[in-house]
Amino acid sequence: MLWTELLKKDHEITERVLAAAEKAFAMKGGPTNALIANLLDYVTHYADRCHNQKEEQHLFPLIEQRGIPRHGGPLAVMLAEHEQAKELLAQIAPLGEAVLKGDRTKLADLGKIFSDYAALLKSHYWKENDILYPMAMQAMRPGDAEAVVKGIEALESSLGAGIRERYYALAETIIKSVDLEDLAYGLDRETLAAMLNTLPIELSFVDADDTVRYFSHEHGEKIFGRTRGAIGTKVQNCHPQKSVHMVNQILADFKAGKREVAEFWIEMGPRKIHIRYFPVRNKEGRYLGCMETVQDIAPIQKLTGQKRLLDTP
Ligand SMILES: [Fe+2]
Ligand SMILES: [Fe+2]
User: Fold this and answer.
1) Cα 96 to averaged position of ligand 2 atoms, centre (Å)
2) Which CATH number fits domain 3-182: 1.10.220.30, 1.10.760.10, 1.25.40.10, 1.20.120.520?
3) Residue 81 near residue 88 (C-beta atoms within 8 A)
4) Which pLDDT tens digit goes with each residue over 22-50?
């Protein structure tokens, strides 16, 4: 590959990372800790330490020798912007670390400085792609272009074999994680609902305020009949008075983080009904609500030995 292709590819990947991160900052709740950790790693160790160093060590000195002055003109602007990027990173890193340690109050400041950093990089990459690199190519003598590629490769191996491939993969992880959260794991609502209705387990969900929000298998046969009218009502109103204290105890335990499951099993004719309640928490551990699963486990209890062959439908 030509040196321009190598460096422009870095720009393109980094711009996609920046766009994904900005989107995550704009989303309700902001970026997850996993995303922040990946982002800090990427901008510090790749965009700054690897990409900018390729230019500072192997491109800029060479074109300076070919007559493009280091002081005044585009080269000086590029170097000054590398410094500005470093200064912003020096502010981003401690804020990011604070958020990772649990201080979400720093998230807004982090988002603001990150957006300055992203704006700087975007305009910097544009100037390099459209002004500095063409100017550098004009100034180069035979053999110079190959020397820059060799320099880029040497710098990358000095930072660890396969560094570019590793950070490009991390970039994809960052980009995908934002898209996934946006699109409910890449599934549209119809598919997601159909999948939940296909589970051999009936699900229902009560939110953090104890309001019934969802139940599966609405149109299929259910172990416990439920009506749409239950949606939007308090869960305490959907249970016989004598069991309300138990419902409240389970929910209180879940909210306090004292219990990870509550389970019961009852017999209904030939069926053995397994009923379980689980606290649903987000990645940061915040309580989102309670999920109930109801399953007839009688057929499962009867399984013995093994079945490894497909039967005829
Ligand atoms: Fe640069
Ligand atoms: Fe660059």
Assistant:
1) 24
2) 1.20.120.520
3) no
4) 988 988 788 999 999 999 999 999 999 99
